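Translate sequence into structure tokens.
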Amino acid sequence: MISNQDYLIQKYSEAREKVQEANTDTGLNYWRGVMDTYHNLLSTAFEGWAAPDSVGYYVFIEQMTYDEALNQVTGTLVDC
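Result follows.
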């Protein structure tokens, strides 16, 4: 079951991928704003969401995709 925290981490990860794919300043600024919004929601609602060895840590600090981070934490392969 995915929690609200996991959902927001996943959406943050997706927004970061969009930042990397953005090919205009407008698109880049939009997706950075989306990332900031998810980061602020996570930081205010979920204390410790990016604690070491958590999915949030690997997504936010190590800049992995959500699936890569989940795989790192669980030690299992996750379908991408």
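Note: The chain has a mean pLDDT of 91.
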